[in-house]
Structures are given as structure tokens and as C-alpha cells.
Write a structure and sequence with these properties.
The protein is of the alpha/beta class. The chain has eight helices and nine strands. The protein is elongated, with a radius of gyration of 22 Å. The structure holds 6-chloroguanine.
């Protein structure tokens, strides 16, 4: 997979590129690149935005700037599947992550200000994606969220090859949240660990985890029951 993240603030992604799933995926042959719109802008002074037609507050990122950046990176030929980040987009979920991670290449367009000239959405992007029903100041955090969910699916991103299979909301979990995890010590301040996990009985552990996952799904849908284990007591 070749992932290009277009942004006005490449420096915001430094930590992100160094952390484990991204680093591992890159070591295993995937590519994650940051692309700065300003490197290709045809506007003098390195500008990328302008005042909105019709008036109003804020600045809008220009369509010619975004197009020039895409042409600068991909040439005149075919462009990869292009996602524009916008709070009004399709909400990111596990199905969309699967779809995108199966692509040979993806371009993520991240913006600031009032967003992009709408012709970016209409003519340059294939998908409009939001990371949830709330508004953030810019697309950098959404870009990292989207990129991390996709990169985690790529070969080599995770150390243990089983860990992406049984995680929350995955198909292997029937789209349900994951079961709870515990580790040493077995008792802390009187807070114990479910006995079954210490039993060494793999079949009982498997059944318990399945049940916990279903219970959490029920809790999430507003069902009663199971809350004592699904949401353990806070500090006394
Ligand atoms: Cl993709 N962008 C912004 N600015 N806010 C958001 C978002 C995206 N998704 C949720 N909130």
C-alpha cells in the first residue's frame, strides 16, 4: 500500500510516522508519505487558500492548489483512490477501513480553515470521510485516525499476527467490541481478576471472552445486565 497524506502541517505528523504500526508497516514495504500543498501551489507567496465567494468568515483551500499537488505527486496519469476529510462525510467504520486497506494506493486530503473549495469534493475526491459526529479545527487528527486504522491492517504493522483478527468491531468478533483484558497482579487493592482467566482452561477462557464480548455489545445497545464485569468499579 502506498498512502499519501496531503496536509498544510506536515510537522504535526512527525510523532505519528515514528510510532510502531506505521514504522513496522513501512519496514515491511508499505509507504506512508506526507505531502505539503505549499510545495506545489501555483499561487504566488506560497498561498493555498482564499476568501469564500459570497462572503463569510474563514478561508477556503483552493481547488487549483489541491489539483496541482495531486498532479505534482501522481503526474498526469491515474490517481489513487482519494479521500477528502470533512465532518460532513461518511463516518469512518471498520467496513470502510477494510475497503481502503485493500487499495493499492490511497490519497488522504486533510484541510484547515473552512475546508476545501467544494470542487475538490466534486471533482478530485472519490470519498468524503468523517471520523465522527463532532467538529475538529482541522483534518490532521482525522488524517492520523484514518491512516492508523488503515495502516494497522497492512502486513507487518502489528507484531502478533493474531492481534488484528480478534480485536474490537472486527469480523472475527462478529462486529462486537472486544472482551476485557487483565494482567498481573492477580489482586490489587482488593480488585480481583475473573477466576476463569487464572484457571488455565483454554476452552472456558474462550467461552468467557465470547460471552463478555456479547455482553458488552448488549450494554452498548442499552440492554441491562452484565454491567458489573463490563464496567468494573472505579476507585472506591
Ligand atoms: Cl474529517 N474534519 C474535521 N474538521 N472535523 C471532524 C472530522 C473531520 N471528522 C469529525 N470531525
Amino acid at each position: 500500500m502506498k498512502l499519501d497524506i496531503f496536509t498544510l502541517f506536515p510537522e504535526a505528523f512527525e510523532w505519528f510516522l515514528e510510532q510502531r504500526p506505521v514504522r513496522k508497516a513501512v519496514e515491511a514495504g508499505s509507504e506512508v508519505n506526507l505531502r505539503d500543498y505549499r510545495d506545489w501551489t501555483p499561487i504566488k507567496g506560497g498561498r493555498v487558500d482564499d476568501a469564500p465567494y459570497g462572503g463569510g468568515a474563514g478561508m477556503v483551500i483552493r481547488v487549483d492548489v489541491v489539483d496541482a499537488a495531486l498532479t505534482g505527486v501522481y503526474g498526469a496519469g491515474e490517481r489513487p483512490r482519494t479521500v477528502v476529510l470533512t465532518p460532513a462525510g461518511r463516518q469512518l467504520d471498520d467496513a470502510l477501513v477494510s475497503e481502503l486497506s485493500a487499495e493499492p494506493a490511497v490519497a488522504i486530503l486533510s484541510g484547515r480553515y473552512e475546508g476545501f473549495d467544494h470542487r475538490v469534493h466534486e471533482h478530485l475526491a472519490d470519498d468524503e470521510v468523517s471520523i465522527g459526529p463532532y467538529v475538529l479545527a482541522g483534518g490532521e487528527i482525522p488524517a492520523m485516525v484514518l491512516a492508523e486504522t488503515v495502516v494497522r491492517r497492512l502486513p507487518g504493522a502489528l507484531g502478533d499476527p493474531e492481534s488484528p483478527i480478534e480485536e474490537s468491531f472486527s469480523e472475527a468478533m462478529g462486529g462486537r467490541p472486544e472482551y476485557p483484558h487483565y494482567t498481573r497482579p492477580p489482586e490489587y487493592r482488593g480488585w480481583g481478576v475473573p477466576e476463569v482467566l487464572l484457571s488455565g482452561d483454554h476452552e472456558r477462557v474462550r467461552r468467557w471472552r465470547e460471552q463478555q464480548s456479547e455482553l458488552r455489545a448488549g450494554v452498548r445497545q442499552g440492554d441491562s445486565g452484565g454491567d458489573s464485569v463490563a464496567s468494573p468499579d472505579r476507585h472506591p
